[in-house]
Amino acid sequence: MRRPTPVATGPYAPPAPDRELTVLSADGARLHVELHGPEGAPPVVLVHGWTCSTAFWAAQIRDLAADHRVIAYDQRGHGSSPVSRICSTEALADDLEAVLAAALAPGERAVVVGHSMGGMTVLAAAARPRFRAHTAAVLLCSTGSARLVSESLVVPMRAGRLRTWLTARVLGSRAPLGPVTPVARRVLKYATMGAASTPAMVEACARVVHACPREVRHAWSRVLEGLDLEDAVRELTAPTAVVVGTADRLTPPVHARALVAALPHCVGGTELPGLGHMTPVEAPELVTGKIRELVTAYAAGTPNEPVKEGA
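User: That's the sequence. What structure does it adopt?
Assistant: Structure tokens below.
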């Protein structure tokens, strides 16, 4: 079956990268990396979520690349990164470290932005020396550290064992998503986006999500089902901001509030009224603005300050 391609026009059409890299992770997994923006500008690293790809960040890349060096990569099995037999939070952390080492100079520090599983990737890497050496600040969008299935609101019924079981079956389904049809758009909008999301937003997200191979979608759903990174939250010592939509059914605000309470250096929690799980698409200007704020506060003017690896 031919997979959908990203939208070709409008604010959610992915810009062509200035440069591309293939980075090898610790286990030999090949990761597709895209570089945008001027050399020497403050770096920003974008880490997408489950079933997405670099195309998910089109609006942020288009804006930030004017005066930032934007580094975006496809998680293993997603986008242009080949499928890997290893699926674990440790592998996600290995991948992020490999990208940071390949795309940044020794001691160079970036603002690292993670959405959904991308935020979980950041948490998984939080205690790693290379991650700490290369990270100036963090933005966590629409993410959580544990109990993802039991807290999910995708299945509209009272919390309990039955809802948890049904949610796991829905999110972990092996069924193909198929082409992007009107019905598929409605389902995706219900599960992942706020009621006010525009048709252009829904179309962009549907094309990205439907392009993810079903075996990859299923394999990573099992990892998310058993996720427990609560201890890792306390290891994320970089200045960290948190963003969530109040209508997020996949990672409801209870997760963001727990992160804000547990992070050692939280610099703000923002709840966006009526928005769903796809906050970088649903509120592109706001998310990009948060990234710019973190760059200005923690990374601007000091991208090449030496930071000892392992610090």
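The chain has 13 helices and eight strands.
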